[in-house]
Amino acid sequence: MTSSAQSRAIKTYRSRLADKGLVRFEIVAREDDRDLIRRLARTLAEETSEARTLRDSVAQALGGGDGPTGGILAALRRSPLVSADIDLARPRLAGREVEL
Hints:
4 helices
């Protein structure tokens, strides 16, 4: 059990973290990776160009995750077929009669 002073101190600390846009969470990892994960987390918590580069590199190495939206649309707009005058309309057919 924690004392009320200790609970208040934890609440204040976590509130300060939230004001900075940070959250505290627990992970399960190998003992050998403890220092690596701590350095990684410390670097990512900063708002520096190094943190942005590291964040992008890790995201790319892990498959990207949820990247920015609109990537497909941007790729289609860059396509050389954008200026081509292609008629993509197809005739509307009533379909076929089916006996049930």
